[in-house]
Amino acid sequence: MKQTLVFAATVALLAGSVSAAEPKDEVVNAAKQLGEKENYSWHQTVVVPEDSQFKPGPTDGKTEKGGFTFVSVSFNDNEIKAVLKGDKGAATNMEGEWQSLSELANSEGPGRFMAMRFRDYKAPAAQAETLATQTKELKKDGDIISGDLTEEGAKQLLSFRRRNGGDAPTVSDAKGSVKFWVKDGALTKYEFKVKGKMSFNGNDFDQDRTTTVVIKDVGTTKVTVPEEAKKKLS
Asked: CA 154 to CA 192: how far, in whole Å?
């Protein structure tokens, strides 16, 4: 009887140790499972302070396993559409015409910035997995798993890489947090908040934004890609 009690206590202790490490693994596994689905959609919103000069609009996306990813980004009264597949991509310019990301990268104005953004774009399954690995520690409360981002993780979310040479922005005082909603092993939503200061071309910009991504239509999403976009993929 004593041996049985000791064994039961040992098992309970080990189980407690495993569960303490489970939240991050649970998020990573849920993200990987989402990425293995045949298709899914998402809706993303970004909240910034009222006095911010640039207020991003919502982003809607659709993706299929091993196929195309279609993204629609709104800002002000404009809408940019993009099609991505592997390391290739195309997007619409300010006139609504499809161009390859290479063509946009060599253009002037917002097209160049959007080209950089889409080159580095991650669909929610990949982004959620990366976010989970960039946390200090994750804790679970019901269906919500949350924690603080590492300084390096927050910096990466606040910065962007320059293409074709040029100085990249520097980020300081970076910090952030993240929440994941995981129900029955499925990732349904995640949210990350980041703050910091970006220095670029001799100017300093305060950064403060909250990004929320809602996953939907898993397994029932249909991705339709215009022929003009397919011809421009590069």
From this structure: 9
